[in-house]
Amino acid sequence: MASATRYDISFEEVATALVRYLDIHEGLWTIGTSFQFNGKNIGTDKKEMRPGFIGVLNQMNLVRVTEAIPGLTVDAALVNPPVFATTAKGRKTN
Protein backbone atom coordinates (compact mmCIF):
# COMPACT_ATOMS: atom_id res chain seq x y z
CA MET A 1 0.00 0.00 0.00
CA ALA A 2 1.34 3.44 -0.91
CA SER A 3 1.83 5.92 1.90
CA ALA A 4 -0.21 9.13 1.86
CA THR A 5 1.44 12.30 0.63
CA ARG A 6 -1.40 14.67 1.52
CA TYR A 7 -4.22 14.90 4.05
CA ASP A 8 -7.03 17.44 3.61
CA ILE A 9 -8.34 18.53 6.99
CA SER A 10 -11.44 20.64 7.58
CA PHE A 11 -11.51 23.54 10.02
CA GLU A 12 -13.93 21.55 12.19
CA GLU A 13 -11.42 18.67 12.33
CA VAL A 14 -8.65 21.10 13.36
CA ALA A 15 -10.91 22.61 16.04
CA THR A 16 -11.83 19.12 17.29
CA ALA A 17 -8.18 18.06 17.48
CA LEU A 18 -7.23 21.21 19.40
CA VAL A 19 -10.17 20.87 21.82
CA ARG A 20 -9.13 17.29 22.55
CA TYR A 21 -5.41 18.14 22.80
CA LEU A 22 -6.12 21.01 25.21
CA ASP A 23 -8.56 18.79 27.17
CA ILE A 24 -11.47 21.24 26.87
CA HIS A 25 -14.87 19.74 27.78
CA GLU A 26 -17.37 22.59 27.47
CA GLY A 27 -18.25 25.54 25.28
CA LEU A 28 -18.34 26.37 21.58
CA TRP A 29 -14.89 26.75 20.02
CA THR A 30 -13.88 28.04 16.60
CA ILE A 31 -10.66 28.41 14.64
CA GLY A 32 -9.25 31.92 14.41
CA THR A 33 -6.32 33.36 12.51
CA SER A 34 -4.04 36.37 12.73
CA PHE A 35 -2.62 37.86 9.52
CA GLN A 36 -0.09 40.57 8.80
CA PHE A 37 -0.20 42.50 5.51
CA ASN A 38 2.50 44.77 4.08
CA GLY A 39 2.41 46.95 0.97
CA LYS A 40 5.35 46.84 -1.41
CA ASN A 41 6.27 47.61 -5.00
CA ILE A 42 6.56 44.26 -6.75
CA GLY A 43 7.94 43.42 -10.21
CA THR A 44 10.55 41.52 -12.17
CA ASP A 45 12.49 44.74 -12.93
CA LYS A 46 12.12 48.51 -12.30
CA LYS A 47 10.03 49.01 -15.47
CA GLU A 48 7.53 46.35 -14.41
CA MET A 49 7.00 47.50 -10.80
CA ARG A 50 3.41 47.56 -9.54
CA PRO A 51 1.90 48.22 -6.12
CA GLY A 52 1.20 44.97 -4.32
CA PHE A 53 0.95 43.42 -0.92
CA ILE A 54 2.32 40.45 0.94
CA GLY A 55 0.17 38.58 3.44
CA VAL A 56 1.60 36.40 6.18
CA LEU A 57 -0.30 34.04 8.45
CA ASN A 58 1.10 34.90 11.89
CA GLN A 59 -0.78 32.35 13.97
CA MET A 60 -3.86 30.22 14.34
CA ASN A 61 -5.86 30.13 17.54
CA LEU A 62 -8.84 28.52 19.19
CA VAL A 63 -11.50 31.02 20.26
CA ARG A 64 -14.48 30.44 22.53
CA VAL A 65 -17.65 31.85 20.94
CA THR A 66 -21.30 32.21 21.96
CA GLU A 67 -22.76 31.25 18.56
CA ALA A 68 -21.67 28.43 16.28
CA ILE A 69 -20.18 29.37 12.93
CA PRO A 70 -21.01 26.55 10.48
CA GLY A 71 -17.89 24.79 9.24
CA LEU A 72 -15.60 26.37 11.86
CA THR A 73 -17.13 25.72 15.30
CA VAL A 74 -17.31 22.60 17.46
CA ASP A 75 -19.08 21.95 20.75
CA ALA A 76 -16.48 20.66 23.20
CA ALA A 77 -19.11 18.74 25.17
CA LEU A 78 -19.88 16.69 22.04
CA VAL A 79 -16.40 16.20 20.56
CA ASN A 80 -14.55 15.75 23.88
CA PRO A 81 -16.99 14.76 26.63
CA PRO A 82 -15.52 14.46 30.13
CA VAL A 83 -14.62 10.96 31.26
CA PHE A 84 -15.88 10.02 34.69
CA ALA A 85 -14.18 7.34 36.75
CA THR A 86 -16.28 4.87 38.71
CA THR A 87 -15.59 3.79 42.26
CA ALA A 88 -15.68 0.18 43.40
CA LYS A 89 -19.33 0.71 44.44
CA GLY A 90 -20.25 1.99 40.98
CA ARG A 91 -20.53 5.68 41.89
CA LYS A 92 -19.30 8.26 39.42
CA THR A 93 -16.51 10.57 40.50
CA ASN A 94 -14.80 13.50 38.79
Mean pLDDT: 90
**Count of helical regions:** 2
By secondary-structure content and strand pairing, the structural class works out as alpha+beta
Helix fraction, binned, reads: 10-25%
Given as residue ranges, the uncertain stretches (5+ residues, pLDDT < 50) are none
What do you see in this structure?
The protein has one domain (about 10-94). Helix content is about 15%, strand content about 40%. The chain has 2 helices and 5 strands, in the order αβββαββ. The strands form 2 sheets. Strands 2-1-3 form a 3-stranded antiparallel sheet. Strands 4-5 form a two-stranded antiparallel sheet. It starts with 10 loop residues before the first helix and ends with a strand. The model has no long low-confidence stretch (mean pLDDT about 90).
Offer a quick outline of the entry.
This protein has 94 residues and is an alpha+beta fold. The protein is built from two helices and five strands; from the N terminus they run αβββαββ. It has helices spanning 11-21, 76-79; strands at residues 28-42, 50-65, 73-75, 85-86, 92-93.
Reconstruct the topology from this structure:
Layout: H1 11-21, E1 28-42, E2 50-65, E3 73-75, H2 76-79, E4 85-86, E5 92-93
Antiparallel strand pairs: 1-2, 1-3, 4-5
